[in-house]
Design a protein that fits this description.
- The complex is a heterodimer of chains A (125) and B (252).
- Chain A is mainly alpha-helical and 125 residues long.
- Chain A contains five helices and five strands.
- In chain A, the strands form two sheets. Chain A has a two-stranded antiparallel sheet with strand order 1-2. Chain A has a two-stranded antiparallel ribbon with strand order 3-4.
- In chain A, β1 and β2 form a beta hairpin.
- In chain A, α3 packs antiparallel against α4.
- The C terminus of chain A is likely disordered.
- Chain B is α+β, with helices and mostly antiparallel strands and 252 residues long.
- Chain B folds into two domains: 103 residues, no CATH class; 130 residues.
- Chain B is built from eight helices and nine strands.
- In chain B, the strands form two sheets. In chain B, strands 1, 2, 3, 4 and 5 form a five-stranded antiparallel beta sheet that branches. A four-stranded antiparallel beta sheet of chain B has the order 7-8-6-9.
- In chain B, α5 packs across α6 and α6 runs antiparallel to α7.
- The two termini of chain B are 38 Å apart.
- Classes of the chains: A mainly alpha (125), B alpha+beta (252).
- β2 of chain A pairs parallel with β9 of chain B, so a sheet runs across the interface.
């Protein structure tokens, strides 16, 4: 992959999409024509499993609490090492039960709508 | 071109005679060729093996071929996984049989590209901000740090919930602000699901081809203003995947 440095540099640009980006983009989108078309890759289901949306759960909350706990606020003593080690092993065990949901797209109909209205208003003036 | 026993993979459709220089020039793409009929042409290639690794590689190939093609020509992207038995069927069953529909689709996507913006919080930065600005969170944090882990589970869960709500509040405000800034330079947008925690937004934008540079400039500006707290990634130009709907185009 080639990352293009943009002039200002605050935005990361990749010339080509990476797998994680691609899967969400191309699955279930794009034109389909008629019955003759054959869709038969076993891997598609596996790709579909890559499309995840994070949802909140108690596990998420406990992980957030850990993140806040480890946070360096710049004026406090860090927690002792024993606690940190426990935290790490616990985080590993909890990773498996992370709640996840398939992504759904919510279209912003008003977006285009309001643009048009603004334009119309301006042209009236 | 194509082995008679191998299926042909359909990437997408472009206008017949389109010069696809970027597609020829860009490295690391699979072999593809063009089958033309009337005003339309399909970009096709050999279908991959039917297994997981080949499928993943093909997912990248599918997106990258179309990203290269859209640099030079309007592209109607085909859904991932569509194959036909051979070049001749591409011409007859696909292009001839659907010629007018495809030409119509091409006309609709003609002047637009998709630019997908993904923004993420710098996790520590936003958490620090939350602890500093919300007294109850700071208090619970102290309580958590004083007790042993077993005894403070409830405190942790409560703290985490408050933090989660605080992140969500910021996310709503920040994503609305960013969207507001980009509205004037985009035609339309779709809010996609977040891919991970601490993601601010995931939004494909429909952008007029002749305003792409302007759009990129505004994204850069918005990103610079927020780089202390957020990381911006901009993908594209790519075909207008999120704005294609065979039955009912998003712009209809």
């Amino acid at each position: 992959m080639s990352i293009q440095p943009s002039p200002g540099g605050a935005v990361e640009r990749s010339q080509e999409s990476q797998l994680a980006d691609v899967v969400a983009t191309i699955l279930d989108k794009g034109v389909v024509v008629d019955v003759f078309a054959r869709v038969s890759l076993v891997g598609i289901e596996l790709l579909r499993a890559d499309v995840r949306v994070v949802i909140a759960s108690v596990d998420t909350y406990l992980r957030f609490a850990e993140s806040v706990n480890r946070l360096d606020m710049g004026r406090e003593e860090p927690k002792d090492l024993t606690g940190v080690v426990e935290d790490v092993s616990e985080a590993g065990a909890k990773g498996k039960s992370k709640g996840a949901l398939e992504a759904g797209a919510e279209k912003l109909d008003e977006f285009l709508q309001s643009e048009k209205e603004e334009e119309t208003e301006e042209s009236r003036r | 071109m194509n082995d008679k026993n191998q299926d042909v993979w359909i990437y997408g459709v472009v206008p017949a005679g389109a010069s696809l220089e970027e597609l020829e020039r860009r490295e690391g793409l699979p072999d593809v060729w063009v089958v033309e009929a009337g005003d339309v042409a399909a970009i096709v290639g050999n279908a991959p093996q039917d297994d997981e690794k080949a499928t993943r590689n093909q997912a990248l190939a599918h997106a990258r071929v179309l990203e290269a093609a859209v640099v030079d020509a309007p592209v109607v992207p085909f859904r991932f996984g569509i194959m036909v038995p051979g070049d001749q069927q591409v011409g007859n069953d696909l292009l001839d049989a659907h010629h007018d529909d495809l030409a119509e689709h091409l006309k609709t996507v003609d002047d637009h590209v998709q630019m997908t913006l993904k923004v993420y919080y710098h996790e520590d930065e936003v958490l620090r901000e939350i602890v500093e600005s919300e007294p109850e969170i700071a208090k619970l944090r102290e309580a958590m740090r004083e007790g042993p882990e077993d005894a403070t589970r409830d405190v942790r869960a409560r703290l985490g919930e408050l933090v989660s709500n605080a992140v969500e509040q910021r996310r709503q405000r920040d994503s609305a602000d960013i969207l507001e800034r980009l509205k004037p330079v985009a035609q339309s947008a779709v809010v996609e699901g977040l891919e991970r925690e601490f993601m601010v937004l995931n939004i494909p934008f429909l952008v007029a081809r002749d305003r792409q540079e302007e759009f990129e400039d505004v994204v850069e500006e918005v990103a610079q203003e927020r780089q202390e707290r957020m990381r911006f990634r901009l993908l594209g130009p790519m075909p207008v995947y999120n704005f294609i709907d065979v039955e009912e185009p998003a712009w209809a």
